[in-house]
């Protein structure tokens, strides 16, 4: 990556996992990073971890569901630094469980953060980037934005929307100097699985059954994201399995659906067995 000293990057959800790793990677390479998270302690920790790095970190508390606050953060950063090179719309949450157990409140909380949070970032930064004639918006979706995962349907809906938003906006922005990429990770070993709300299923059982050997740590994920961003890739799948599933879904959607249905049957059987034991 060729990071100029004046490169300015804004990152949401920077207090943990992928957002923290991206913040540290960009700061290490000399960028000025405006790192925000809704959790003050987490984002403060991210800032501390970057002490002594080449770049500068400005950390702040920001809830991406608050459109006015997102707009204010972007406007302030632009006024202070005179440019915005990157906006990483990274903050995200999940609710896991079958749809009959998921309330409207759960649906709305997922859509508010994962979809509207991205929309708020785009509305705040895209116009500035068009005016500058440059800039790169990097939205974090998921492999669940490219394939039909049962058990997290609200999350799947939000991430498919982010993929569609990003690819369509990429087409609009191309002639105006604005780049748009969407990151689609598979399993990344972060605390999102601890913070997820589980309905009708046991958190501990999910955590114990996570196939960690298939996962990638957030630092490696951030490196791979930046490789894709530097090459201006439209869609950036992360992890081998995410690549395989993406290709398979395009080649044979019906095969992937059958696989997913089999997974549902298996999960229901395991759930029933653990309730009776
Ligand atoms: N970890 C994975 O396996 C995985 C896979 C695919 C996609 N993703 C996506 O990657 C992104 C980052 O996830 P992660 O795994 O690093 O999770 P994480 O839980 O480690 O970090 C997410 C951060 O977002 C913050 N956040 C949550 N709601 C927010 C809000 N309303 N406003 C601002 N900040 C908020 C949290 O406080 C947390 O610090 C998310 O969009 C997630 O959906 C993760």
Keywords:
binds nicotinamide-adenine-dinucleotide, alpha/beta, single chain, 277 residues, 15% strand
Please name the fourth-level CATH homologous superfamily: NAD(P)-binding Rossmann-like Domain
Which band does the percent of strand residues land in? 15-25%
Order of neighbouring strands in the sheet with most strands: 3-2-1-4-6-7-9
Average residue-wise pLDDT? 96
The assigned structural class equals alpha/beta
Runs in which pLDDT lies below 50 for 5 or more consecutive residues are none
Separation, N- and C-terminal Cα atoms: 53 Å
Rg calculated over all Cα atoms: 19 Å
* CATH class label: Alpha Beta
The number of domains is 1
Structure description:
This protein has one domain (8-276): 3-Layer(aba) Sandwich (Rossmann fold). With 277 residues, it is of the alpha/beta class. Helix 1 packs across helix 8. The chain has a 7-stranded parallel beta sheet with strand order 3-2-1-4-6-7-9, sandwiched between helices. The longest helix has 29 residues, at 104-132. The N and C termini lie far apart (53 Å). The mean pLDDT is 96. It is globular and about 60 Å long. The protein has 10 helices and 9 strands. It has helices at residues 17-28, 40-49, 67-81, 104-132, 153-173, 192-195, 203-209, 218-230, 240-251, 253-276, and strands at residues 8-11, 32-37, 56-61, 86-89, 95-96, 135-140, 178-185, 197-198, 235-238. 53% of the residues lie in helices and 15% in strands. Nicotinamide-adenine-dinucleotide binds at residues 12-13, 15-19, 37-39, 42, 62-65, 90-93, 113, 117, 140, 142, 185, 187-188, 190-192, 195.
